[in-house]
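Q: Convert this sequence to structure tokens.
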Amino acid sequence: MSIEDPKRKNAESPGNLRPNQLITTFGPGSIAQMKNDSVIVMGIDWWDTSDKFTVVQHPSLEKICNKSHFRMITSMDSKDKVIPCKSFPTWGVCSNTFCRRLQQHKSSPHPNNNSQFLCSECKNQLIPARMIVMCDKGHLDEFPWVKWAHSSPKDNALQCTAINPKLKWSALNKTTSIGDYYVKCLDCGSSRKMSGALGPQGLPSDMMVCFGYSPWLGKHEKCTVRSKKNNTLTNSSVRAVLTRATSLYYPSTISALLIPKYRHPIQIRINEKIETIRDDIDDSRSFEEIAKRKIFEELRDEQNYSVNEIVNKLEIRFGDSGKIKKDSTESDIKDEEYEDIMETEFEGDDIIDVKSAPLGELEKYFSVLKKANRLTMVKVLRYFTRGSPPNPYASDEEDDMNICSIQRRKQDWFPCVSNKGEGIFFSIREDLLKEWEQRPEVQKRCGALFESFNEWAKTREWDIPETRRPRYVLLHTLAHALIRELSISSGYNEASIAERIYEGNNHNAILLFTASSSSDGSLGGLVRKAEQGQFLSILENAIQKSKYCSRDPLCIEDDPYEKKQRGFPVHTRLNGAACYACTLIPETSCNEFNRLLDRKFLFDDEIGFFRDI
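A:
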């Protein structure tokens, strides 16, 4: 879909983005590099709310996010302008080698310029200047090019009298590093090389003050920090960053499956009349009064649902008796998904279709095997951070100090994508898993992993609310081994198959699934592998292949306990025997960004769960 300047109607679009990108890489507040310009995607206050959006309901996510609904951007012809953006940064460099003027342009190009900004001197195209300034709270602003050009210590005696100094971007042509470039003022002759500009103390003190500018929200605010020395408030400082730096944008998303209990006929009717029901609740009507209204007449008279049954579904949806609360996390959502999928056979729905598959010889290891012929995963963007990733264990925005909002004024919705696909759901026998977890060597090896992970999380100021169990490392590693094996024969590559791990004191399961927003997302190749005989063969092959790695013996001898005892850096102790040659998969498919993995737990004679395969 297209993105456009919100201040200019019928403005030429700078380019297109996919719906999935608008809640991940290029969500509100991100900088997108288009063909002719660099633009910042505006907050959702500016987004078009017409029928170009599909309203998505997910009860659990609505409670956690405190929103009434979500909106999914639909793919459309590129001529339809949907998502607003504006040029940022507004400085550019002339593409003419003999000109190379560094200058600031208007917010939008002239309609006759084919979406291009032109040099004021030679009329050649301007290339976006790839440097801005950012503070720890996420504010962005233009790089102070004029001040930088006149800040060289050797040029202190020079006084530039020009109101709008003419700047030139030049290079020494000795290396390709940023230090090879410099900015020169053509009016007074002052110049300064760019070396050191990107360092933590790269800008002079008079250029480091943050003015609290949030261009994606169109607002300024006072930006201060509390000094650790004397507990006083001081102005925040900024640092220079490249616009292509990945640290500029870390989205915080939360995902959930649409599960069978929310596909009950009463719940579907609630979705259809959601606004009316919310109005009734706001008017202090009881659930019993709402259940007796005409909107449920068909369910009562033709489908024979009692008022008590309707009241029960309303309580699940809008009451406080359910498991999901406002302060719940994705871990709580997974517990809800596990219970519903384990207990329910649900066939024939275009949203979710789950049914059991025969275990056969898999009974030796597994208690449940189910085929998800159709599933729907909803992913919601809540906020983002800059500089460092958000706390993935935070329950809401208040738990993360440096969050950046995607809305200027509170909206009753968040952007989302709803992906459809297929998957395989299975659970390991709980009796075997508990016996395995009690082995001293398993606890010793896992204990070192978890201690290292907690130590690493503290360096990022993350609070880890949940208790990790040895079963998580086993389930996580098994999921990776199966994804690598399934990619050979299912018709999907590794990056297209994702994992969803369910674990608790008395339950466990793995969902391996694929989903796509561009189509129904199901080729059937993954589900077919859950048929009798095929999944056993895939499991056996995965375990056998996990025994070998091209980096052995270095990989297989990687012991997290020994490395901890010997004082290895914490980031080297987050996995056991695992590397990209044997266990790691694309990080977009992994729950934990390729951490807490150890293939020895699969096959090792002493600690391997599947050691007899």
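The mean pLDDT is 88.
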